[in-house]
Each structure stands twice: as C-alpha cells, then as structure tokens.
Write a structure and sequence with these properties.
The structure is a single chain. The longest helix has 35 residues, at 1014-1048. With 1263 residues, the protein is an alpha/beta fold. The protein contains 36 helices and 44 strands. Helix 4 crosses helix 5, helix 30 (991-1003) runs antiparallel to helix 36 and helix 35 (1146-1169) packs antiparallel against helix 36. Helix 23 links the parallel strand 35 and strand 36 (713-717).
C-alpha cells in the first residue's frame, strides 16, 4: 500500500471562492457561459450562510466542470443555490452587473441555465435572462412548465423500459420490489410501477433494503424480486434472503465476487456508458492531481470532501491532505460516475454548449429562448427533446449480467428499438446458458386485481393519516387517534391527540396483532400474507362513515404506487376500536363484508348486536367447584349495579348443581352498610360465601372485617371487567380466588415495554402514532401508558378481536379455496360473504381463554384457582376448556386466629328444606324464600282448585252457611205465608228477590276460600260484583217504589213489572261488565314453574295465582260503589216518610244503605293498607258483613211485623169485636198515604166502611 500525499489547490483556469459567497464555486471561461445552480448545501440558515454539505452534488459539480474543460468553447459558472430561491435571485442580479471576460476582453454573455436545486429557478430565468433552461430532475415531484424549461431526468426512463420489457419476456408477471433510499432508485421505482401496470406485471410486495436486511417482510410469496440499487455493496447484506433477482443498478461493481456470492439467480442491468465516460482516467486524475499553486486550510470544502468520503487526514504543518491507497479513491470515483449519474450532468452541459455554439453562429447574441428552433434541439447526438423532456436517443443500450450461484455466467449488451423492443431476445440469450426461474401468479395475487378498483378512481387523494402494511389479505381498522375532525377550513384534516385515552397503544396492538399473527398461529394462512390498514377517524362517527364509503367505492388515492396502494379488493374485514361510538359506522352493513365493533370492555358487536362478551363470569366453573367441594349451602355478595354479572345465569348454574344460595346481599360501600351485611353473614348457616365484585368494593369489605370476628370460607371470582388486584387486599387465610387467565397479552406487553423504553423490538409496525403520542405526553406531562393496566387489557382485547376476525377469514378461505390454505381467484367475489357466515362457527384459544362465538351469552374462559395460605398464594386447581381440576390436598380451612383446621369447613344445608334465594332471585339483596320472591301481590300458592283449610276459611264457611240457611228459612216462611193467603195482598215482588240476592251474596265467599283455578279466579270477580249489584240494585228500586207510593193516590198502585225490570237492568249492567272482563282477561289464572331445594334435592313445583291487582279489583267494582252511594243519596228523599209501607218502613232502608256504605269504606281502606295475605279474607268478610246487614236490618224487622199480622174471621155475627173478624191495630192502613200538613182529612174513623159480616167484606176496597 503506497501513500499518496497531495495538496488541494485552485487550478490554473479555475477560480475558487468561499462556498457561501455569491461568486461561482467553480468557473471556466468561454465565448459564452452556462450558469449552473446546484444545491451544494442542503439549506440556508438565515443570512449566515448555507448548512449541510451535499457530497453527491459536490462530486457532480466537479464532474460537470471537468467536462467543460475538455476542449469546449462554452464556459461554465457553477453556483451553490443552497435550495434558496432568494440566493439564486441574488446570484443572478450580481452576475448581470459584473464582468466575466473572455480572451478578447469582452464580457461573456449567458447562453443558458442548468439547475439541479430545490429552489424554483424556473420562476427567475425567464424574467432575468430569457435563455434556455434545463432542469436536471433528481426524483422529486417538480412538474415541467411551459416557460422555456426543459426537464432532464437523472433516473433513466430508458433503463426502466428495458427492465420492464425483459420482465415481460421472462414471464415475470408477479414480483416484489426492493429499493434503497436514494432519490434515483425511488424515482425509477415509481416509473417502473407505472410501466408495470401497462405490461400486466403485478406487484405482490414492496420493500426497502432495510426491510430485507432486518427481515421485516410481509410474507408475500413471489418467486422473484425486482431490485433498484445504486450501491451494489448493499447486495451482500440481503441477497441471500431473496431467491431470484432482477437488479437495475448504475453501479458497475458487479465484478466483485464478494458482493455477488450471496446471490442465487440474478440478472443485473447496468449502464452501457461510452467508453470514455467510464474508463477515461482523466477525471480521476483531475480529482487526485489538482494543481498545487496555493495551499488551502483544513476547513475548505475540497479538503473536507476527501476527509469525509475517503477518511483522509489533514496535515496542518504542511497544509496537505494525506490519503491511503489511491486505488480505493479511483474505484469510488469510477463507481460514482454511475451511481450518482454524473454523466447526465456532463451530457446536459454538452447539450447546452452545442445549443450555445449554434445560437452564436446564427447571430443571436442575446441567446434568447425565442431564437431556438426544433432543429437546434434535435442536433444533440445524445438527447432528443420530446414534450419538453430530454430523452436518450434510440437505440438505447444496456449491459446485462447473468449471475448464477454467485458467479457471472455470461454478459451481454442489449439495445432498444424504436418500438421499445429489446434485442437480442433475452429469453433466448438466457436459454443458451441455463434456465432462469419464472415469477408468475398462480393463485390469488391481489396486486393483479388492483386495477379493477383504481382505474375507476376519481383521484381523490386521501386527506388523512393512515398506516399501511401490505399483504394478500388486508384487515382494515378504524381508530380515533386524532381529537377533532376539521370539517371546514384549511390545514390538516384532523388535529389534536387523545393521550389520556391511550389510543396509540390500541393502534399499536392492532398492528402488532396483524404482524405477529403468523407466528402466534403458524398453522393458519400458510401461503397467504396478512396485511393491515389503520385509518384515523378523528374521533368523529361521521368521519369514519365517510372513510368507509369512499374507500369501498374506490374514490381514494393514496401516496403509494398504484399497485401497492390500499385497495378494498383485498379487505374482507373491517374493525372499529372507537370506544365512544356504540355502533359501527354507517354503511358497514351495506358493504357486504364482516364489520366488527369493540367496546372498552372487549365486547364484540356486529350490525345485528352483541356476538361476544368477555366481561362476563364463568358461572359453570364456580358451580362445578362448589359441587366438587360438596359446598351446597352458600351465601352471595355482589357489587351494586355491576355490569357483566347475571344473577339469572348464576342461579341456573347453581340450581343445576344442587347448590343453594342462602342469602344475597350487596357489598357495603359506606360504614352504615357494614353491620346489616355482617349480621346477615354471621346469622346464616352458610359457611361459604361467594363474592362477585369490583376491586374497590372487595378491598373495602375485607378491611372492614379486620375489626369483626367473621369466620367463613370466602370465594372471590374476577372477570375481564371486574379485574381484581389482590395484592393490597387483607384477605383472610383460606380465601379461594378464581383469577382469569390472560387478562393481558404477554407478547404485546413485552413489545410495548420495549417500545416505550426506546429499545429495539422484533416486530416493527411503523406506527408513527407512538412517537406522536409520546411527544404529546411529554409536552403535557401525562404519565406513560406503561402503568395503565386497563389500557393493556383493552390492547389484549384488540388482539383477540383481530384473532376472531382472522379465524372467521381462515375458515372462509378453507371453505372457498380448499384445505391447502391458499387463496383462489373465486375468493374475490365469494370470500367476504363467506367470512360473515363463518363468524358464528369460530372457536379459538386466545392466551389461555377459550372463545366460542356460537355462545355469545356465555363466558367460556379459563380460571386459575388459588388459595391464600400462610405460605403464600397456592394453586389449588384450574378451569380450562370447560373442565375442572381441583387439587384437594392443597386446600385448607382456617379458624379465627389463622390456624389451619384438620378438615375443610363444610357448608351444607342444615335441615330438610333450605330457604334458597337462587330460585328466581332478584338483585335487591334481600334474603327471601323462593315463594316470597314470586310476585307477592299476586298471592301465589302451590295448589289449584282446592279448599284452603285455614282458620279464617273455616269460620267464613260456617258464617256464610249459617247466614244462607237463615235466609232460606225466611224465604220459606214468606212463601208459606204467601200461599196461606195471609200475605196475598202483600207486595213481595222485591222482597223475595232481595232475600235471594242476599243468599247469593253469602255464597259468593266460596271462591275466596278455594285455591286459584281458572273458574275460581273468574268467579272471584264475577260472582262478587254480581251479588253486590243485585242487592243494591233491588234496594235502590225499593226506595224508588216507596217514594212513588206517596204520589199514586187512593186506589192506585206501582207496576210490579216495572220494578222487576228496573232491578234487572241495574244488575244487567254489572253482568255485562263481568262478562267483558272475563273474556278479555282470559286466562285469568297465572302459572309459574319454579325449582326448590328439598332435602338437598332440587325439585320442580308449580305455583298458581289469579290475575289480580288491588287497583284493578277496586276499579272493577266501581259500578257497585256507585250503586251504594246512589242509594245513600236517594235515601234523603224518603227519610221523612215514617209510615209503614205494605212491607217495610223507609227508616229501615235508609239505615241499611248508610251502614253498607260505611262497610265499603272500611273494606277499601283495609284493602290497600293490609298485606296481600289478608286480601281474600277482606273480600270474604265484606261479603258476609253486607249480607248479614241486609238480613238483620231489613228482613228481621220485616218478618217480625209479618209474624204479628193476622186476620182471624169469626164464625158468628156480632158487634165490631164479634162481627166476623179481628182487626190488627198495627195494620189499620194497608197502604200508607199522606196529605199536605196544612190540610186535614175529612175521613174519620166513623166514615170508614165497616164490614158487618164475611159476606159483606169487600176485598177491593181499602179500609
């Protein structure tokens, strides 16, 4: 190795000036000069100069200057534009006012401008110079304008065209792409993607070189990969990870066997430069042997170039740069001509110099753009101008090297014709050596279908942020990462973040779940890659709906290549993780794809409702454990209003295992609630107590017990929502814990911990939200999510939801495409619907939990069963896959002072029949028996249609029977009197029906002493109301007829038919009410089947009750109450009539009516005041009281009077006392009459007709 020492100085014809000045960095004289603006620095820092040297452009500037020195008459001035338009303007104004003389002493005019800068030079040239301007395009997006600008692309369009044609000839129609981070490679990739669409080449995956090196591949299986690489040295780092390659590079270092030894099969396409551009050593000599007229200081840019690029050192004493091994520098410069595309700059200069010479020869001293015609532009031997773009002239040639097993098999030069065909035929050329592998689509190839969507797109650029992981199948997720959707106004579509909600962790969990799925489920999707796209809904439900609708209708364009952009054709599943939304975005049901919504508790919803609930408890696990321990008599404590807990499910599980719940109380939350709960626990014979509660309630309860002596076996059960942190809780020894498996995902927790700590992770999600949220938390001093257990559980729920959707998708793939797990073309139309159909069939194990989508109402997860003992937390069993295993030898019970007992504490029913609240239990916390838990106001009993042998029922039957018997005796007595002739004139047309109605009233008590049946329940209403209506209807009719007698006059009478019809119609109204009620309410018997624990065995019993409520019962009798009130009000009109009627006095009717009203008031009051147990008795007592009142108040005085009425006819004539009859003085007047009080009757006792004998007794007259 020899040492090369040289001094970097200005050349004889070269002027060097400070890089930040507005004088040229490099310049050469000529009859005219070409101004070159190139970014030798990346930017400008105020007025203090430029910063960030661009060493690539530094080499390009020197190469262009060197080309200008090769015998050209056109000079060059190279300026550092620093990416600043203001600096370019200052340079142009300075250039126009200074003198740059040629050899004749005449100022050299500007013949043209070349720019390779981020500054908008094209906006300044027309106004200040008006000359030809060529912009060298370095892969950015600056468009070609119509102001005289000509575009020259550094990326070679012709090279990409040759590449595309070769791929088509090799049948490489399904490929992946790999590119480095240089602008040239990125631009060539974009060009290739455009040409690939027209050539029918599908892109399966796109990677960067770093992706391949770090193995961040998306498992898209293509046989071949197309590589865009400027530095072939990088190929050694990743070549072995990909099988077959077609490489487009401008680096000629393929001769290095060390680089190629990792390549199996490859075609390498490189530039076929002119011999002088590649092998001419003059440029290298120029760079190494700059003339040494003047020494330079260390800070000069030229010195720094060799120090930075070639690791040279600076000798301050001799002011020289010392470099080792000049061959290394020569190799680098040789490669740089290709990799940095320096020759393009030289060719552009030659193009501009040629134009300048022609303009000068045609006497156009201003070198105006207007002087240039098409012929001038077409004289370049290298370029042709088309559409304001410099293109290489045909035929364009390129070198191709065939690499096999790390060695160059053969090399050749290929050219393109005017028809863009490559000659010779590359397929024949390869066949002459050895076959080259194909890379074609044989199955799904989703990239091949992308054009079906994007060709119909409206080019609406997606206006939000998203994360995209490509794959054969893509799962789309919507997460509210931003806080506000800016619907109206300029600027960003969304703004703000939600760091306290930790949605960055939720998004990371989704992306991590997608990328780790194949490693977690290696048997699924063996030949299929799974990708993801994550949309930010900006915390707005309608924004999510907009994204869904536009994406599914192919209206979005993305900042990806057309083949590699997200497409709905590859998305069979949508997931929503917006915890504020309670439904899926609008349109989710209309897209015909599986759409799942997850809430904060991990519950999964589809458009039709809940399909999976992990927040519930596994009651079967608890009941099976109690049965195995023979703990069949237990207590129950729960938190109030606790979601996820179902008392009905617990009741079903315990009943099926013959376990009786003795009491149910709520866990106390305040000091005044503790004593009642503790009293219930201590007084109960249940030795085992189940606790379903939140961590806070359980902690408060056990801390409250530290000062109380309560010795029980406690069993605490946790769920996904009511997750319990047992660490700080003072649990007594012997407490048994049911702890959920996999409350958090261990793999993701480790990934998140490393991510937050800034450590390297195995799975790279490229989630930019992690850094955004971290910065937001840092600014606002919000704690990191690493300590938030709730967020970590939600992240685990996200991964479970993803796994559920992918399990349905896996089943759909097998159903549609067969069991080989490869995608088929028919999956495109049939796959989404099949995925929705397969959701209910999903069964999977997730982190120890068993997920069964067929039973969404049951939690089928797994439990770890532990016991708190003096030696710590001891595992005593587990519940896995619906199977219980108990380690009985590990279980212990303890006494009040913490000493272990010899045997486990039993907890069984102490008597033959136990009072169990788990039968039809409610959550009111009361300790009640099963029958009491039935609706108390219904009066349930366990018999039907049977006589109730209670004391009050027997007394009621005795009284009712006695009263009915008395009424029957009176009825027979009156009939005997009637048929005996003594009461022939008595008006009994209403008296006998009233007595019959009274008997019916007494018999109406019978339905109330029998247990409910359909007939009994109906008669309790119908007979009860009808008997009352009949009695009070006749009573009202009696009062009305009594009043009518006052106005009839002597010799008149009241129609008996009218009285009967009136009484009938009054009763008929109640009949209509009763019939209608019975028909509409039928059936009126309620039957409830329940289960009770008797002698330790669960038995089913049936309870019966009438369809009954207090308010309805009183409302039903409103007509009866109306009749009673009407009777009382009507009695005021007859109370002044105190004379006897033929049958009863008005005073008796008045007294009876008011007394019955008082009875009904008392009945109604007691009906609503007393408990349900007394209602039947109240109804029966009311019936008896009213019936006996009528008998005692009305009929007893009447019968007494009737018994004193007698006509004894004498057999021999005589005086008045012996003239053939005896007159009853109590009935001197058979019909009462009255006159006004101011008048006096002229009729006296003397004027009465006195019958002298039986023969002269006129029965038609009134005496």
């Amino acid at each position: 190795m020899e040492t090369l020492t040289f001094i970097i100085l200005l050349g004889t014809f070269m002027q060097i000036s400070p890089l930040f000045a507005i004088d040229p960095f490099l310049s050469s004289p000529g009859s005219s000069v070409v101004l070159v603006f190139i970014d030798l620095h990346e930017g400008r820092q105020g007025d203090g100069g430029c910063v960030g040297v661009n060493w690539v452009n530094f080499g390009r500037a020197h190469y262009m200057y060197w080309r200008s020195m090769q015998g050209n008459i056109t000079g060059i001035e190279i300026y550092d534009s620093c990416g600043s338009e203001r600096r370019v303007a200052d340079i142009l104004r300075h250039r126009l006012h200074r003198t740059a003389c040629n050899s004749s002493g005449i100022p050299a005019p500007v013949s043209g401008v070349v720019s390779c800068s981020r500054a908008n030079v094209a906006a300044l040239v027309p106004s200040l110079l008006g000359t030809l301007h060529v912009r060298i395009h370095d892969g950015d997006q600056t468009p070609v304008s119509d102001n005289g600008l000509i575009l020259a692309e550094i990326p070679s369009l012709e090279s990409v065209q040759v590449l595309t044609e070769i791929l088509r000839r090799l049948n490489w129609t399904y490929v992946s792409t790999v590119t480095d981070d240089t602008l040239i490679s990125q631009a060539e990739l974009k060009t290739f993607l455009k040409l690939a669409d027209d050539s029918g080449i599908c892109i399966g995956a796109s990677y960067t070189v770093n992706d391949v090196i770090n193995n961040n591949l998306h498992d898209v299986h293509t046989s071949g990969a197309v590589v865009f690489l400027q530095n072939m040295l990088e190929l050694h780092s990743f070549g072995g990870r990909l099988q077959n390659l077609v490489i487009l590079s401008h680096d000629r270092a393929i001769e290095d066997t060390q680089i190629m030894d990792s390549v199996d099969k490859a075609l390498v396409l490189t530039d076929n430069f002119p011999e002088g551009a590649i092998n001419n050593t003059k440029f290298m000599d120029y760079m190494l042997n700059l003339t040494n007229n003047e020494l330079l200081i260390e800070n000069d840019t030229d010195v720094q170039y060799f120090i930075k690029i070639f690791n040279c050192t600076y000798n301050a004493t001799e002011q020289t740069a010392v470099c080792l091994d000049p061959d290394v520098i020569k190799k680098h410069l040789t490669r740089a001509v290709g990799t940095e595309r320096m020759h393009v700059f030289g060719d552009v200069y030659e193009f501009m110099a040629n134009i300048a010479e022609r303009l000068e020869s045609q006497k156009c001293p201003s070198f105006s753009r207007d002087c240039i015609n098409a012929d001038m532009l077409d004289t370049s031997p290298v370029f042709a101008v088309a559409n304001n773009t410099l293109l290489r002239r045909s035929p364009f040639s390129i070198n191709i090297s065939y690499i096999s097993n790390g060695r160059i098999n053969q090399k050749g030069v290929f050219s393109t014709t005017r028809d863009k065909e490559v000659t010779p035929d590359v397929s024949y050329w390869i066949a002459s050596s050895e076959p080259f592998p194909q890379s074609a689509c044989t199955t799904w190839c989703p990239g091949c279908h992308a054009s079906l969507c994007f060709k119909s797109a409206d080019n609406l650029m997606f206006d939000g942020e998203y994360v995209y992981i490509p794959g054969d199948l893509v799962i789309a997720a919507m997460v509210p990462l931003s806080a506000v959707w800016n619907k109206i106004g300029a600027g960003n579509t969304c703004s703000g973040l939600r760091p306290r909600d930790n949605y960055d962790v939720i998004s990371e969990a989704f992306l991590f779940g997608v990328q780790s799925y194949k490693s977690r489920h290696p048997s699924n999707f063996r030949n299929i890659s799974i990708g993801a796209i994550l949309f930010d809904t900006c915390s707005d439900f309608y924004r999510g709906a907009q994204i869904l609708a536009n994406f599914e209708s192919c209206k979005y364009a993305f900042n990806h290549s057309q083949h590699w952009s997200p497409t709905p054709l590859k998305v069979p599943v949508y997931l929503s993780f917006d915890f504020d939304a309670h439904q899926l975005p609008n349109g989710a049901g209309a897209i015909g794809k599986l759409a799942l919504q997850m809430d904060p508790l991990g519950r999964i919803y589809v458009k039709g409702g809940l399909v999976y609930d992990p927040s519930m408890y596994s009651y079967d696990a608890v009941a099976e454990f109690l049965k195995a321990m023979n703990w069949t008599h237990i207590g129950l404590l729960t938190s109030q209003n606790m979601t996820g807990f179902s008392i009905d499910f617990l009741s079903d599980s315990t009943k099926s295992n013959n376990v009786c719940i003795a009491f149910h109380r709520h866990l106390p939350r305040a000091s005044h609630e503790i004593s009642p709960v503790v009293d219930t626990i201590t007084t109960s014979s249940a030795s085992t107590v189940l606790i379903f509660g939140t961590s806070g309630d359980i902690d408060y309860f056990f801390r409250s017990l530290t000062s109380r002596l309560v010795v029980k076996t406690w069993i605490i059960i946790e769920s996904r929502e009511n997750w319990v942190d047992f660490t700080p809780i003072p649990l007594p020894y012997g407490t048994i814990l049911f702890q959920r498996y996999a409350k958090q995902n261990a793999m993701f927790n480790n990934h998140l911990n490393r991510l937050i700590a800034g450590q390297s992770v195995k799975t790279t999600t490229k989630n930019m939200w992690i850094s955004k949220y971290a910065q937001e938390r840092s600014v606002n001093r919000i704690p990191s999510p690493s300590v938030n257990d709730v967020t970590r559980m939600q992240a685990s729920d996200v991964i479970r939801t993803l796994d559920v959707s992918l399990a349905a998708l896996q089943r759909a793939v097998i159903t549609v495409c067969g069991s080989n797990s490869s995608l088929c073309s028919i999956f495109l139309p049939d796959g989404p619907q099949r995925t929705m159909d397969e959701l209910q069939s999903v069964k999977l194990n997730y982190e120890g939990d068993f997920v069964d989508m067929h039973e969404p109402s049951e939690m089928s997860g797994n439990y770890l069963i532990s016991s708190v003992q003096e030696s710590g937390m001891i595992k005593v069993g587990h519940w896995v896959d619906q199977q219980l295993e108990v380690f009985f030898h590990e279980l212990k019970s303890y006494n009040s002072i913490g000493e272990p007992l010899k045997e486990l504490r039993p907890s069984v029913c102490p008597g033959r029949v136990c009072s169990c609240t788990n039968m039809n239990m409610s959550s009111d916390g009361k300790n009640q028996t099963l029958s009491a838990n039935l609706d108390k106001d219904m009066g349930f009993v366990n018999t039907t249609g049977e006589f109730q042998r209670g004391l009050w029922q027997i007394i009621t039957i005795v009284i009712a029977g006695s009263g009915a018997f008395l009424a029957l005796i009176l009825l027979l007595y009156l009939i005997c009197k009637l048929f005996g002739g003594g009461l022939l004139r008595r008006h009994l047309v209403l008296g006998i029906p009233l007595l019959f109605a009274t008997m019916l009233l007494l018999l109406s008590v019978l339905p109330f002493v029998f247990s409910p049946s359909e007939a009994v329940c109906g008669l309790r209403y119908f007979a009860h109301g009808l008997s009352y209506a009949l009695c009070f209807g006749i009573l009202l009719t009696k009062m009305m007829s009594l009043r009518d007698y006052k106005f009839v006059g002597l010799g008149g009478d009241v129609s008996k038919v009218n009285q009967l019809l009136l009484a009938f119609f009054i009763a008929a109204v109640q009949i209509a009410i009763g019939v209608q009620w019975w028909v509409l309410r039928s059936p009126v018997l309620i039957t409830v089947n329940v289960t009770e624990l008797v002698d330790g065995q669960v038995r089913k019993n049936t309870y019966y009750a009438c369809d009954f409520t207090r308010r309805d019962f009183i409302s039903y009798h409103s007509y009866v109450i109306f009749l009673i009130v009407l009777c009382c009000l009507y009695s005021f009109s007859i109370k002044s009539s105190l004379r006897n009627t033929k049958e009863v006095s008005s005073k008796v009717l008045v007294v009876c009516a008011w007394f019955c009203l008082a009875l009904w008031i008392a009945i109604i009051v007691t009906f609503f005041v007393l408990t349900r147990d007394f209602l039947e008795a109240i109804c029966a007592i009311g019936l008896l009281a009213n019936a006996m009142s009528i008998l005692l108040i009305i009929f007893l005085p009447t019968v007494t009077l009737i018994s004193r009425l007698k006509y004894d006819v004498a057999k021999s004539p005589g005086d008045r006392n012996s003239n053939g009859y005896k007159l009853d003085t109590d009935f001197q007047f058979e019909r009462p009459y009255s006159l006004p009080s101011t008048l006096h009757s002229a009729i006296t006792d003397k004027s009465l007709t006195m019958p002298r004998s039986l023969a002269t007794f006129d029965t038609s007259l009134s005496y």
